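Give me structure tokens for this 290-residue protein.
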Amino acid sequence: MNIKVSSISTSCLDYYKDKPKNIDLIRIKIFIDNKEYIDGKDITPSYCSKLLKENYKIVIKTSQPSLGDLITYFKDLFKKGYKKVFIPTLSPKLSGTYNTVVQAKKILQREVKKFEIIPYDTNTISFSEGYFAIEAERLFSNGFSVEKVIKHLDWLKKNNTIFFIVNSLDRLIFSGRLNQTKGFFGRLFRIKPILQLNENCDINIISKKIQLESAFSFIIKKIKDYIEGVNKKNFLIYLLYVLYEDKIKDSFKKSLEKEFQINNILEIPVSSSILAHLGNNVIGVGIIKF
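Here you go.
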């Protein structure tokens, strides 16, 4: 099947060493003090973190790929001989990227009738989003039809979640990713809010802890509940982070590896386009059941 799998840079696949070479990345635009950067191309998470560390109030905005850029990219794929492109995107609740892909599809349907654009809403973000692209590429490479790939991804969509701790809720609230009422107590007492991105891509505060160790223990318990009854060969756990002290991050990683009897848990830094809405000092765990 002559089909291309393309992912969005919010998938964090730039930082996954085993990323399939055939997967293209469609990149989010980042604006810092009105200067434009391309996510993962001319700005890195470490540089973005550095800017935030120097000035926490710095204005960072993100924008989905332009309609024109997408149309040009899709036309180039058609010229290369591809008949279809499959694009697992982050949730429309978090970005307008999915809707822009749909717009491009409608326009190109009139111009290039022999080329099919298939957007797929993963209902998630970060490496969890990237995993959908990895699975789609694997299945298409093995001759699976679009219908069977979507059926598999629909199952994954209902069987993944992310737990994470942020140092501050301010950027999540400012960007509209978290309701201000939900974030009120986390801001008021300056405690460690623990959040969950659920299967509907809703971000909810599920607990608040004063001590980081207590927050880590709470997350481990939530993971246990989430994977209860699942064989350890049938789930993936990865660590996501933004500018976290190595000693603390490594300690949490070792606790996860010991608790779930897993060696070398994946560590995936979040992309600059996600970091812009989270701020520094973020750590979390993504869980995918298969």
